[in-house]
Amino acid sequence: MVTLSDAAGIGSRDKFLAVVSTARADGTIQSSVVNAGVLADPESGQDVVGFVTYGKAKLANLRARPQVTITFRTGWQWAAVEGSARIIGPDDPASGVDAERLRLLRRAVFSAAGGSHDDWDEYDRVMERERRAVVLVTPIRVYSNK
Fold first, then answer.
1. In the chain, N or C: fewer CB atoms in 10 Å?
2. Total count of domains within the chain
């Protein structure tokens, strides 16, 4: 059985780059590349896949249809995580998540995806200016060619 930890291990070998695929209203698939990592959901404590985005198409698709697949790969090895997305951001408020908690959550997701920053205050300013949202994916299925 493949786990989220296995998926994160694959992602860690290529800068946590992952392909995120969402469903458009017409049933076609929209995909893009993000940095994603595994972290504890701040509400449930369950391990989830998280990424930070401001992609209008991705967010619109996830608001309407929260089903998402995230695929990590390195070389020919890959692991996919299918699940349900929850968006937390300036345009997607969540109970118990104020501006400060959102700021810290963005940092936590960025760090889980292998990121570090020399100027966290600047990071926070950019995230706020661009109205970036956190997407947390609760896994339903994890599989791989491993």
1. N
2. 1
Q: How distant, in Å, are the alpha carbons of 3, 12, 21, 75, 126 from that of 49? A: 12, 13, 13, 21, 22
The whole-angstrom separation of Cα 10 and Cα 126 is 29
Whole domain around residue 18: which residue ranges?
Answer: 4-144
Gyration radius from the chain CA atoms: 14
For the chain, where are the alpha helices, taking DSSP H only?
A: 4-12, 56-64, 99-112, 120-129
Tens of pLDDT along 85-138? 999 999 999 999 999 999 999 999 999 999 999 999 999 999 999 999 999 999
The CATH number assigned to the domain holding 122 equals: 2.30.110.10
pTM for the full predicted model: 0.96
Q: Which residue has the tokens 């109970």?
A: 95
Of the candidates 109, 119, 107, the residue with the CA atom closest to the CA atom of residue 50: 109
